[in-house]
Amino acid sequence: MNKALENAWAGLTFIVMLAATYLVFMWVPNEKVMGVVQKIFYFHVSSAWIGFFAFFVVFIAGIMYLKTRDSKWDWVGSASAEIGVVFTTIVLLTGPIWGRSAWGAWWTWDPRLTTTLVLWFVYVACLLVRSALDQEEKRARFSAILGIVGFLDVPLVWFSIRWWRWTIHPNIIESGGKLAISSKMQVTLMVSLLAFTCLYFYLLPKVVRLAKHQSMLREMKEAIRGRLTA
Amino acid sequence: MKYWSQVRAIVRKDLQAEFRTKELLSSMLLFAFLAVVIMSFAFDPTREVVKQVFPGMIWVVFAFAGVLGLNRSFLTEKHNDCIAGLTLAANDGSAILVGKVASNLIFMLVVELVSLPIFFVLFDFRSKGSLGLLLLVVLLGTVGFVAMGTFLAALAVHAKHSEVLLPIILFPLLVPLLIAAVQATGAILAGQGFGEWSLWLKIIAGFDLMYLVVPTLLFEYLLEV
Prior knowledge:
The complex is a heterodimer.
Chain A: H1 3-27, H2 40-68, H3 71-102, H4 111-132, H5 136-164, H6 183-229
Helix pairs in contact in A: 1-6, 2-3, 2-5, 2-6, 3-4, 3-5, 3-6, 4-5
Chain B: H1 2-21, H2 23-42, H3 48-75, H4 82-89, H5 94-122, H6 131-156, H7 162-189, H8 194-223
Helix pairs in contact in B: 1-5, 2-3, 2-5, 3-5, 3-6, 3-7, 5-6, 6-7, 6-8, 7-8
């Protein structure tokens, strides 16, 4: 991505994020029962969306890497996994803060909570595997495989916990696709989602570039070491 | 036919190597025994509440003892670069996985068959269900566990500190299987009706299928040298 486009994207992300923050804290009314605590919902849902989306990207990048063997896909996959872990961590932190005041409990073993937690474990393990492998090609191949297996496992986790425990997590999407929140809340949620999506696509190329430079640096080091020993 | 004779050869090799050293089985068995003993210190067997967590304890011990064995299954192949030899010898890489899954399954079933009675004796547990059904759940649960575990063991073996890495990558992926296995075991031990455990049994079978098919498809990519 060229520099001008990237700067423009950074500006856009900043503006949308600012708008989302304004809407959440100044504009949208408080929820009737839960009060001000409910406002965490906008960032919570947006982080969850980015968390899951990031892992979908890991899955696609994994398939593409195994098909094309282009390091580019490995960088995209690893970058997305890192960003995904960060946002899933935010979900796992903001959820209990809200849950404590709304349910009176920090944590329940509800399908959504548990699936998110297991997802977090799977992808942290992916990052661990990456750091434990020395050879670049092997690392790319193995993390692609783990990314695919991890993603395919998530629905199993979801269903097994659903059959095991029923949910108390609020579901704002009613049957027929209608949202069970007021229109001002809908607007705020949409802007927050957009802001986080912009943020994701702002971060992704940066982390990809970092991965690329790391790999270039390693190659240079190898070359120098080869020169020295020759 | 060629495929299955390759699978058989790998199973025979693993069993023979194990029969000569008895390293793996003895350590797995002792570990499982020890884990049951520790469990009975941690959860007083005379208390009625403990009976309710009994199915969970069984699977916790199986899982940890299993990981012990899975770790070894590809580590031993690392000496003298045996993996490369195996890869060259097998014309279909997945035969190695299937063979390894089969031999790991045998090892784990031996450990489970020995440690189950120990569990029942030390916890003075009386099952209200049939023994055949219990063994069926144990078998089905172990198939899924070993299938995914062997695949990830083959992956982890190339990494530094693979012994620590394997459980970290394996257990999150096995969460669904463990939930289903514990639920099914609990329902059967409590002597509940067909409706209670048959659903869980079907779910385990479904997971087994997933855990067998996905690794078999991806194993080819894992083996490349």
